[in-house]
Amino acid sequence: MEMNTLAHPGAPSVVIADDYPIVRETVAKLLVRRGFNVISFGDGKMLVDYFQQLRANDRQAPSFLLTECRMMGTIDGVTCSRIIRTLFPSIIIIIFTVDKYVCVDLDVDAILPKPATGDEIEDLIISLYR
């Protein structure tokens, strides 16, 4: 886990997963400034392990998962989203990618093309929040 910022009690939590630190850090800082709690990961295995631990301990999932589609490492974003959707069917999953056509058949709530502005990210999260 790279960053765990729970600075806003009661606010929605967003898990960010991207293998590029600059993307992860920039999006995390933007979301924290806009009132969200953020947990971020740079590796798909760590991301899946986190969600499996939540499930094993009967803990509630964060409100959102924002993950890169083609994350490098042992588990890519596509596989992560499938595993996490199985563990937590109601989590809101947003795929963040430069190649939206790779991710069209996924069971996700939205595909957000890279690059995206802070307003685009925030607007999408707010529109999907239940």
From TrEMBL:
Response regulatory domain: residues covered: 13-129
Record's protein name: Response regulatory domain-containing protein
Annotated SMART domains: REC
Naturally occurring in which organism (per UniProt): Acrasis kona
Lineage, broadest ranks: Eukaryota, Discoba, Heterolobosea, Tetramitia, Eutetramitia
GO biological process, one term: phosphorelay signal transduction system
